[in-house]
Amino acid sequence: MHGGGMMMVTGSSYGQMPYSSRPESRMRDHLGENVRRMRQIQRQAKEREANAHQPVKALWKSEKYSGVTSKIKEDIKKPPSTPRPKSATFLRAHSRTGPSIKNISRPCTPDPPSEKLTVPPARCSSEIRFNRNNIDFIRVNGVSAKRQTMKRSPSVNALDELKKKEEEEYNKHRKGEVPK
User: Fold this and answer.
1) pLDDT band at 157 (very low <50, low <70, confident <90, very high)
2) Helix or strand or coil: residue 128?
3) Sign of CA dihedral 156, 159, 161, 164
4) Which stretches of sequence are listed as region Disordered (predicted)?
5) In this predicted structure, what is the pLDDT of residue 46?
6) What is the Cα–Cα distance from 4 to 23, expressed in whole angstroms?
7) How many angstroms separate the CA atoms of 6 and 12, rounded?
8) What DSSP character marks residue 90?
9) Distance (Å, rounded) from C-alpha 19 to C-alpha 5?
10) Which three-class secondary structure state does DSSP give residue 25?
11) DSSP letter assigned to residue 117
């Protein structure tokens, strides 16, 4: 053994039984358990549904208020009030623009003569031939993209000009000479 503080254990592993000697009681039928659990849940849902169809028990009401009638019940029994003629249509769309459009009948527009049409009618669509030039649009777009200059903001252009000026002044200066 080396003096590194490491200890080596040889032999069988502790706390684990070899695979062949495991008892059969530990093997579980997960599929069967899942099916049983699903059926149990279905049974409970059916029971809840059957209980839901039973009549609902009336809520408890104090004897003190047994002679008092409901105000909502009174409102329901009242006949509806007559509608207000002017305010009934207030702020409705087109309520003050004159007679309703539904009552006005319009004559049918006749089809224009075919020589005046700029677009041929749909029934003639099978006869139309398109004039297409053999243009490679992908190549045209690529060429125009190469020619395109990148547009820069005025502040960036001004910064570039300032840097160029400073660099020119620096290059004008003679290095190694002592100024007078």
Assistant:
1) confident
2) coil
3) negative
4) 1-30, 71-120, 144-180
5) 92
6) 41
7) 19
8) T
9) 33
10) helix
11) -
